[in-house]
Structure formats: C-alpha cells, structure tokens
Amino acid sequence: MDRRVFLVLTCVCFLVNVAKVLATQQTSELNRRGADDCKPAVVAHRGASGYVSEHTLGSYALAITMGADYVEPDLVITKDGHLIARHENELGVSTDIAQRPEFASRRRTQRVSGSLVNGWFSEDFTLAEIKILRSTEPMPITRRANTRMDRSLDVPTFQEIINLVKALEKVENRSIGVYPELKYSSHFQRLGLPMEQKVVDIFHRNGYIGRNAPAFIQSFEVSNLKELKNITEIRLVQLFDAKSKVPFDQSELGNNLTYGQMATPTGLADVASYASAVGPAKSYIIPRDAFNNLGQPTSFVSDAHAVGLQVTPWTFRAENLFLPREFQIGNNIYDFGDLENEIKAFIDAGIDGFFVDQPDILVRVTGGAGFVGSHLVDVLMTQGHEVIVVDNFFTGRKRNVEHWFGHRNFEIIHHDIVNPLYVEADEIYHLASPASPPHYMQNPVKTIKTNTLGTINMLGPRACYDEGKRVAETLAYSYAKQEKVNVRVARIFNTYGPRMHVSDGRVVSNFIMQAIQNLTITVYGNGKQTRSFCYVSDLVDGLLALMESSYTLPVNIGNPVEHTIEEFAVIIKNLVPGCRSTVATGAAVEDDPQRRRPDITLAQTHLHWKPKVSLQEGLQRTIDYFKEELSRTTFYNNQTYMDVKVKAPH
C-alpha cells in the first residue's frame, strides 16, 4: 500500500513519503553544502563564546556542531612568529598568566594602537611559552557559567583551528568557513612581526585559494587590507568601528578619514575597490534611540549592496545586557532575552550574515536529524519508504542521517515548524520539541510555540515542556474531531541510545560522559528518585506499532523497569572499564519528580508492544557510541571534553 508519512520529531519535522521502493541501495557520493550556501551566514564570533570560553578549540567545535557556517578567530602573533587566537595581545584578559609566577617579570606597560596598556603581551612570548598558559573567561561576571571551563583549554594556533575545522567538516559533511580578524596590524608591523603574509601563507597552504574559498580576512585597519588585496584573492572584510573614530593606521599616516565617512556611498565605493564585504557595528544598520529601542533601518545595507559589498554586522549577543530594550526578558541583565527577534529585525534590513556569540539561536533543529528521529528514519528507509526530513538543527545533527544523503528516496529540508510548511502527507509523526531541560528551558516561549504552532502547521492552516505537550495533544484531537484527521498520540518516556548529544544535559549522557572521563558522577538530590529508561530502538518500534494500529487514545511508550538514580550511576560506572569515578550528591533540583515510570498496559494490549532491550545492553551500546564520539574529535587532547555536570532534572 502506497502512503505518504509526515514525521515531526524531536525539535524537527520529518516527512516520510511512503512508496514501495527498495531502500537497500548504497548512499551515493555526497555534495557538501558550502559555507556560503545558507543566507544569512552565521559567523560564530570567537566560537560559541556565549557558552564556552572564547578563542578555544572547544568554543569553535561547539559552534560548528551548533550549525555555524563560519568560525571567527581573532589573530595576534608570538615572539617567534606564530599566529595564535586571542582578542587582545594582552594575555591577562583571557589567560591564567597572572597566576604563573614564572612570568611575573614579563609584565610591562606599552602603547598598543594608541592606547596605554599594562600586562603581558603575546609578542613577548614564544609559542612554547604560550602553550603553557590556559584560557579563562574574559567576561566572568556576565558569563559566569563559562568560568567552569577556566584553565581547561589552551591557546590555539591558527593552524590548529584550521585542522579542527577540516576534521569537523568530515563529521558534519559540510564545508565550514574560517573568518579571521587581524588584530593590531600596525602595532605588530612596527615590531617587525607582520601578520599579513603569514595568514595568507597558512590559508594557501591549506587549500584556501581564490574568491570561492570558504574564507574571509577582516581588519579594522585599511592599509593592511589593501596590502592583502595584492597577495591573495581570498575575500577581505573592512570592519567599521564608531563613526567618529579614525582607523589607527590612517591616523598614523596623518589621514583623518573616519569610519563614518567610509560609510557614505562614496566611502563604500572606495572600500569596494579592495574588499568584498563590510563588517559594521549594528548601529550603522539600525541605530537605537535614547531609550535603547531599535530605531528605523538606515540606507547602509542598500548603499553597500549597490557597490557589491556584503554586509555582516557585529555583534549579536543573547544576554539582556546587550539587547535593545524591547527584546529584553526579565530584570536580570545577564539572563538571555529575545535575541532571535533582534536578529530577525536585521535580516529584514537585508544583511548577508551576522557575528553572533550564541550561534544556535538562529540555527534551529526540528527533529529528523535528532536523536530519536534519526533512528526512526533508518527503520522507515529500510522498509522502503520515501523520507523527507524537515529540520532546523537546534539539537539534531546532519551527521545522524548523513548515511542516507544521496539516496533517491531521501530528502532534507531546513525549516522550523513554527512557520507553515505546505506538504501533503498520509501520516504525521509529531515529536517536535526540545526534550532535554537545558534545551527546552533555554527558550520556554519557543518550546511552547513548537508544540502549539508546530502542531497547527503540521495538521493544517518543565512547565513550558509539559504544558506545551498537553496543548499539542488537545490540538491534535481537536483537528481529529473537526477535520476528520486520523490522530495517534504517543506519550514518550525517558529514552536513550546512540546519537544522543554528548552535552544533552540529562542523566544518561551526564553520567556516561562523567564516567568515561573519570569525573565525579553527580547525583542531584538524595539519589532515591526512580527513573525508567527505554532504549531508542524499542521506542521506534512502539511508534511504528502505534501508527499502524487503530487505537486513537494516548499511549505511553517507555520501559517500566525502575531504578533509583543512585543505582543507575553505579550501573554506568561498572559498565565503563577502568572507571575511577566516584558518585557524589548535589543540591536537589526544584520540582524534580521523585518517580517517573510509565504504565504500558495500553501499549501491550492494543499494540502488542513491549520493550526488548535490557538496560545493561542498551547502556553498553550507548557508552560505546559516546567513546567513539570523543575519539573522533581532534581537540580531545587528554583534557575534559566538556563539563557535562549540568544541573538539570534527572
């Protein structure tokens, strides 16, 4: 029987057009998506610096897994001529150098690009000495959570960043761009440490050649960009600071040309003679009024586009402290506000890309490439169905379904189901919603919209998570009654297995990551809370059985075998060979339920379904997967991969 199935999975939708075709043919060679294929381009500012200390391999890697199109390292230079990633050449801002007595005598005062600065400077240290240092969070008050990574990651070289990007391109199966900024160019030239030829040589040596390479080189200065124009065809970006300021190199030359004058139509035409893009402060595009509200867009974008320049403004940050007043949420200036809608205002103004500290905010996932969804795709494809995955990549990853890329019965669409999608389907699996607490609590309003508007868009023209799901069920049954739509409702309980994200934030991933890395396994509360865990293949079997059945009332899909959280921690510890972790308790999480166990009587009676995979067997498979995930990352250099001690409900 031919049928068309539409699946909306964990934070992602997917459509399954069911046709009786063999799904056993090998996946054809893939054509990678380019870094410039998606517009606007997401440039991860100093990596995912809103979540992990800036300019570290961990920060860049996280940004890439979040879906960023480009990573942006700021480059300074060492005494022996190596390019390293730091926002300032003064190392005290973002490393632990002040705590290292062996370098105390190197502290000094000097002028850097016109400003008097006291501290330790990159140009006074060899690369070997730089590698002794460890990165620290430069905004510890604003981003206190980032300080958990202090002194765990080193200072990377430009080449190490490129190595990471190339390794993760294979993992992500897409091209990832590199977008370096040359810092203090005139200062370093004066010291006999010019960076321009070095950055070009490294790019060219790694295959980044010509205008089509996924690379840009940016600077606030002018002369160095004009010099670069003569030695490379890699695209160049003129950055714009405050309108009243003069680029430092121009000031040194006695030229009083301001950034404001460069932003006029005549000035932009001159910039276009050596640059491909401009990176203005956001105020050039939409200024704020005296009350910190966004004003009206200027002509900057259209003026730049008129002379062939792309426009990528800086910097979008999610904290209320940095947002216009109308997009702030709550009274805590360090909490996240509504960055997504600020970005949308700038997209409406016509920008081509944006520098952002939290790249996942606009790179959203809708589910088929997610954890549960990807397993369901595997089964449906193997059964001979035609599958269309609709995913906004918030928590899912293309890697989870890349083995189907190129298959004639598989298609992937980048889309958020909060917005309408017009596709005919015979069956709909609606699982769309972030399921882990760190994800769904990050944007509660978005979670509710995904469960409500997402349900509407699929069926026709803790509190946020739980209530959103209840509303989704109500909507589904309302459509069933009003529009005569066949509806099935599965209530899914704790699920685990391969393809879970290593930083998922829930008990399975937390405990496994801690055990693998010999970290303390943290149990929140007294550990007597009980949970039951269902292996992902059992869940997929249950969903398929429900869809094939004629049963229309809600059905629990989960494993009824209970364990205390304390027991579960010990089980995982014992399954990881050589694990030296200890189990410790932490403060209880507010509203954490004491018992979570499904009654699967209805599933057994009406679907003839029950879970088959034992906890030990499923956990072993999951542990093996997590080990493989860690081993495939080039930045796992005997250091903690990620602090996974997320204080989230078990």
Describe this structure in words.
With 650 residues, the protein is an alpha/beta fold. 30% of the residues lie in helices and 16% in strands. The protein contains 20 helices and 27 strands. Strands 17-16-2-1-18 form a 5-stranded mixed β-sheet, sandwiched between helices. Strands 9-4-3-15 form a 4-stranded parallel β-sheet, covered by helices on one side. Strand 5 (74-77) and strand 6 form a beta hairpin. It is globular. The relative contact order is 0.12. It is an enzyme of class 4 (lyase). One of its GO terms (biological process) is D-xylose metabolic process. InterPro entries: GP_PDE_dom (IPR030395), NAD(P)-bd_dom (IPR016040), NAD(P)-bd_dom_sf (IPR036291), PLC-like_Pdiesterase_TIM-brl (IPR017946), UXS-like (IPR044516). Pfam families: GDP_Man_Dehyd (PF16363), GDPD (PF03009). This is UDP-glucuronate decarboxylase.
If strands are numbered along the chain, what order do they take across the biggest sheet? 17-16-2-1-18
Straight-line N-to-C gap: 42 Å
Shape: globular
**Would you tell me the overall average pLDDT?**
84
Please mark out the parts with pLDDT under 50 across 5 or more consecutive residues, or reply none: 1-31, 363-367, 634-650
Instruction: Please tally the β strands and state the result.
Output: 27
Number of helices: 20
Which percent range describes the beta-strand content? 15-25%
Helical fraction equals: 25-40%
Largest sheet: 5 strands, mixed
Coarse structural class: alpha/beta
EC number: 4.1.1.35
GO cellular component, one term: Golgi cisterna membrane
Pfam families: GDP_Man_Dehyd, GDPD
Cofactor: NAD(+)
